[in-house]
Amino acid sequence: MKVAAKLEDIKEQINQACGKANREPNEVRLIAVTKYVSIERANEALEAGITDLGENRDEGLLNKWEVLGDKPVWHYIGTLQTRKVKKIIDKVEYIHSLDRLSLAEEINKRANRKIKCLVQVNVSAEESKHGLPPEEVIPFIQSLRTFKNICVEGLMTMAPFINDELVLRECFRKLRKLREQVQALNLDFAPCTELSMGMSNDFAIAIEEGATMVRIGTALVGEDE
Q1: Is pTM beyond 0.85 here?
Q2: Residue ranges of the chain with pLDDT lower than 50?
Q3: Residue 223: what pLDDT?
Q4: What is the largest CA-CA distance in the chain?
Q5: Cα torsion through 210, 136, 156, 22, rounded to 10
Q6: Are 39 and 63 in contact (CB under 8 A)?
């Protein structure tokens, strides 16, 4: 199926989820995760009307950048090694995986403008997942006060890959409540308006629980690599 056809289906699911939550569809930013597809498929997504692309490896982002340049808004959504920051820092608008001070220091050092960062939170406490424990998030954000090239735009999490709706909702709800705690601090360097949560298998639930960014790969662009 062509990306354009899949996009219409995804949009309908977004509309339905927003309707259940009394939200407007334009409150949700759709990020097409292109890590498993070719440059041609990524370009097809752009031609279908998608504006935001997400990559989780520096090689994938750089390869697609060579052809697509700044046509899309680029999101780096994977674990980012400190030594690779310099390769991608001038090409991305959002980094969804800020989870440690050494990474923040490197982003701040290498950037020549404010980078919109989301702090990754391991809400589900799974050992296989990256991210800060929820109780460490606010102290970590407060430690970024002097980093002039970092703006904490929001929080990101990955829910467990399961079909238990109650568990998924609780995971997303915890992240939303944590964001509310950060917002209550009124930090000018951390407006924390974004919630990046929800992927191909659970994005509708994430939207119902407040997601402002959903990261959809397989259900939208498929897999061809």
Answers
A1: yes
A2: 225
A3: 78
A4: 48
A5: 0
A6: yes
What tokens appear for 110 in the block? 């290498």
- Give the model confidence (pLDDT) of 41-85 as tens digits: 999 999 999 999 999 999 999 999 999 999 999 999 999 999 999
Confidence at residue 130, expressed as pLDDT on a 0 to 100 scale? 85
Confidence at residue 163, expressed as pLDDT on a 0 to 100 scale: 84
Question: How many residues belong to the chain?
Answer: 225
The closest of 169, 222, 176 to 196, measured between CA atoms, is 176
CA distance 214 to 199: 6
CB 132 within 8 A of CB 122: yes
φ/ψ of 81, rounded to 5, equals -75, 140
Nearest to 53 by CA among 132, 38, 149: 38
Q: Hey, what are 55's tokens?
A: 């990559």
